[in-house]
Specification:
Elements lengths: L3 H16 L1 H41 L2 E5 H6 L6 E2 L2 H9 L9 E9 L2 E10 L1 H7 L6 E4 L9 E5 H7 L6 E7 L5 E12 L4 H6 E5 H8 L8 E2 L1 E4 L7 H8 L4 E5 H4 L1 H38 L2 H9 L4 H37 L1 E2 L8 E4 L2 E4 L1 E2 L6 H32 L1
Parallel strand pairs: 4-9, 6-8
Antiparallel strand pairs: 1-11, 1-12, 2-10, 3-4, 3-7, 5-8, 7-8, 13-16, 14-15
Helix pairs in contact: 1-13, 2-11, 2-13, 2-14, 11-14, 13-14
């Protein structure tokens, strides 16, 4: 409570800070700059992790997938489940609106020039358009229609390799549900340019009706699925979604379960951030510890006189407390102002790592990351800023005041 005594001590602490403006400014500026750099790096890596996550889920993976049990465990595709209205409502009741029931068929395309392995997805176009905007990135021809038969939509990379264009026919080789090797001719309806080169080369789309006729040898008049990928903002609700949708016939997997390599990259980035924060905290504490101790040692004669006049140790600690509160406020204000200004700009413009006129894109495990990183700015980073400053300042001031008062006791 700020009674008269505390108000006086608060003002006394403020005058103590101003008494040596240069050293006080050095302490405040050092902490502000170090914390700003640390939190900026955090925002930068949050941006990288977000881009990795978005790149993964946009390879037709989604944040989650509801998978038929045997397909989930062994990729055995011989036991597809029916996508019923009841299941759709159950998924929607878990807060999920964009989903795509899909049949999956490993196939091979061949021409006189060569062959390539592809993953052929049997989709319902109306569902898939809400799930992933591939249909908006068709550069030749058109996307599948709801009543399409014997049509296929392929990626730009695959089309470039075999010099296909819309309207061309292609031979698809595959193994049907009985294990028989078969070949069918499909017509290229369209070519899409989306996600990465690996995605464009590997994935192709056809209608559910076509894929059922290929794999099951007949269209069964209902929607079947091996997997249902769906979108969410993040993985925060994974336990709730897994418990709500898993059963003895189906299970839920996250994108991290399906792409552990990129999951490890994100976890490594998170570990590096924690390590970086520890290093910064230790470095800045050691940097300001001596100047803070010198600030209090310079007041030793004054503190000794106050002690002789009857000022108790508790009031010295109060002076130190009010001083550290004011230093935390000024340092936090400086760091927060820098963060708000710089991250507000960079979250929109990005940090460009392209050092030439050529577009720099990194592709790893089929995931495409471009050379521009967009740091993520959030209100929680202001809290982290002040928390970091509070820790460093309290530790440094506590040690300096403790050492000064110990010296005062020995000379009393």
């Amino acid at each position: 409570m700020l009674n008269d005594e505390n108000i006086y001590l608060f003002k006394f602490a403020f005058r103590s800070i101003l008494r040596n403006r240069g050293r006080s400014f050095f302490i405040g500026f050092s902490v502000s700059l170090a914390v700003f750099i640390a939190v900026w790096v955090l925002a930068f890596f949050d941006g990288i992790n977000s881009q990795i996550e978005n790149a993964v889920v946009n390879t037709n993976t989604g944040f989650y997938q509801l998978q038929e049990l045997s397909y989930s465990r062994t990729t055995d595709s011989s036991h597809p489940l029916e996508f019923t209205e009841t299941l759709r409502k159950k998924i929607e009741s878990n807060g999920i609106e964009s989903m795509s029931p899909e049949l999956v068929l490993d196939a091979n395309v061949s021409t006189p020039e060569g062959n390539a392995a592809i993953v052929l997805l049997g989709i319902i176009p109306a569902f898939h358009k809400k799930f992933l905007p591939v249909s908006d990135h068709v550069i030749d021809g058109e996307f599948l229609k709801s009543d399409d038969e014997n049509g296929i939509v392929i990626g730009k990379e695959l089309a470039a390799i075999f010099k296909w264009k819309s309207g061309d026919e292609m031979i698809v080789n595959y193994q049907d549900v009985t294990g028989e090797l078969r070949s069918e001719i499909l017509t290229v309806r369209g070519i899409f340019n989306y996600s990465s080169n690996s995605f464009e080369k590997r994935f192709a789309y056809t209608s559910q009706k076509t894929l059922q006729k290929l794999f099951l040898n007949q269209y069964q008049g209902r929607t079947l699925f091996h997997r249902i990928p769906f979108m969410q903002k993040n993985l925060d609700r994974q336990e709730e979604i897994k418990s709500g949708l898993s059963s003895d016939k189906q299970m839920v997997k996250t994108w991290k379960d399906m792409n552990p390599e990129m999951s490890v990259v994100i976890e490594f980035n998170d570990g590096m951030i924690k390590f970086f924060f520890i290093i910064i905290a230790l470095t800045i504490t050691m940097t300001i510890l001596t100047p803070i101790q010198m600030l209090w040692q310079e007041r030793f004669a004054e503190l000794k006189m106050m002690n002789i006049l009857g000022v108790v140790r508790r009031r010295f600690w109060k002076i130190g407390f009010f001083e550290v509160v004011q230093m935390i406020f000024f340092s936090g204000l400086g760091s927060s102002t820098l963060l708000v200004i710089i991250l507000s700009i960079q979250s929109r413009t990005g940090v460009d790592f392209r050092y030439s006129e050529q577009d720099l894109n990194i592709e790893r495990a089929g995931i495409k990351l471009n050379g521009v990183v967009y740091p993520i700015f959030s209100a929680s980073q202001i809290g982290i800023t002040f928390g970091f400053i509070i820790f460093v300042m309290l530790l440094s001031y506590t040690w300096a005041i403790h050492r000064t008062l110990k010296k005062l006791e020995r000379t009393a």
